[in-house]
Every structure is written in C-alpha cells, then in structure tokens.
Amino acid sequence: MKPSRTTFARRCLAALAIAAIVLLFASCLPGDGKNSADKPANFLTGIWHGWIAPLSLIVGIFKGNIRLYEPNNSGWWYDFGFYMAIISGFGGLALSRRKKRD
Q: Is 23 left (phi over 0), alpha (psi -120 to 50) or beta?
C-alpha cells in the first residue's frame, strides 16, 4: 500500500523539524569558542551543556574542537550546573522507572 501525500508531507516536516533542532543544539556546544577567560561559562551554561552532553559527545567524535565540558568556565558553579543536569536528565530516568511485580 502506497502512503498518502499527507503522510509523506508529515514525515518530511517531522524530519525537517528534527534536523532544525539538532542544528540549534549544535550551535552552542562546549568548546566552540564562544566562552573565553574574560567571559567564562556560568551556572546556566553548565546546565545547558549537561543537557546536551550526549550530542556533544557524538559531535566531538567528528570535530576535534568540540568538547563534552567547557574548559573556560566560572568554576564550581559551572560544575554544579553541569552535573545537576547530567544527573537529573539521565539518572532521573532510571529513578522514575517502575519495577515489575512478580
């Protein structure tokens, strides 16, 4: 059975939306040169970098200047935001999973 035009259009629109979101995330990866010693990454940037860490890891394999963690950061507050996002984003998924009852 051949899919209808509306189904094809919806799939194309969904693919374009996903591509746009990935490009948006890729525009602010750690190590891209936006942060410097004069303007270090802060707490909120640390949270963002923690949320997009899986994407940073994948892109970092292909581009040497992209890192998982921003080296030009504000110190403890950046670290706190980064790890808070990592733990709540990925560890929280495991905590919310229901156990099967036998």
A: alpha
